[in-house]
Structures are given as structure tokens and as C-alpha cells.
Amino acid sequence: MSGFIERVIADVPLPRVHAAADPAEVADQIAREAARNAALVSASLALPPGPLGMLTVLPDLFIIWKIQRQLVADIFALHGRTVELTRTHMLYCLFRHMASQVLRDVVVRAGERAIVRQLSSQALRSMLGSLGLTVTRRIAGASASRWVPLAGAAAVGAYAYWDTLQVARTARDVLLTTPRSRADEASSERTPAPGA
Model-level pTM? Predict the structure, then answer.
């Protein structure tokens, strides 16, 4: 499972949006759209019953994480901080609400600010192993829902919606509590605002 998670987060997608004058409002809109898409995909993939439905669990997770990765990349871009987005940030944003005890070492508190530390590849692998257990439990729950198609699809869709909104909230919290990097400040000074 940890190898699957690593492959999912290894690629930080390019953002589909540019820095916005009011990033909070636009981030809310794209978060709700991503949550709706995630809910629709997840509920649709949960409809096949029994053993056939079991085959849709991993594709469901993969597609949801793809939607959520794009959401995180877009939220960072809306705030003009694309340069700062790393695999560690992505890992933290995608899984913080699911496995906060596993990810507690990623964030260092410095006064009022939270700083997401870069992890060594060994620390990242260790953390991914722990996350694998959490994700395996989630898969077991999603698999069980495949045996009760309509109710299970509604529950899985509702969870995907909530989960995606939590990812957006974590990404925004990271941006609000971490200082801008020097590289990112230089990048935003060189890049003219859209429409300028």
C-alpha cells in the first residue's frame, strides 16, 4: 500500500489556475467543484455490487487522490505559491485528516506559524508505510460498502465529498500558517498578475 501511495503523490501536478486577487473565494469554488466531482466518481464506482464492486475500490481511491492532488496544486497556485508545493506538502494535505498521528512529525510549530518540513526519503518511506495501514482500513470500509450498492454508494459519495473538502481546508491552513519562501516571492515578483 505504501508503494501505491508513493506513486500517487510522486507527481505534483501543474496547476490549472493562476494567482487570484481573492484566492479564498476562488479556492472555495474550486474546492466545492472538486468535492462534487469526487463524490460523483466515488458514488458511481460504488454502484456495482459484490465482487465486481470490489474491483472498483483501488481505481476509486486513485481517481479521488488525483482530483485532490489537482485541488491542492490549484489552491497553492491561487495564492501565488506554486513553487513551494512539494511531495511532503502533498502528502500532508491529502492525508492529514485521516492520519494526523502519523503526520505529526511533518509539521513543526514555530510560534504562530506551522512549517511543513521536508522529509528525507527514508523518513518519507517510513511515514508512507504507516499511512498504508490507515489507507488499508479505509479500503476495507469502502469494500464493505460494495455489498449494499445504493446505500453504500451514497455513503461513499458523501465521504468523498467531505474528504475532498478536508484536503482543501488543510491546503489553505498550510498556506495561511507557513511563511512564503524566498524562491516563491522572487517568482511572483517576476510573474505579472493575470490580465496585467
Answer: 0.69
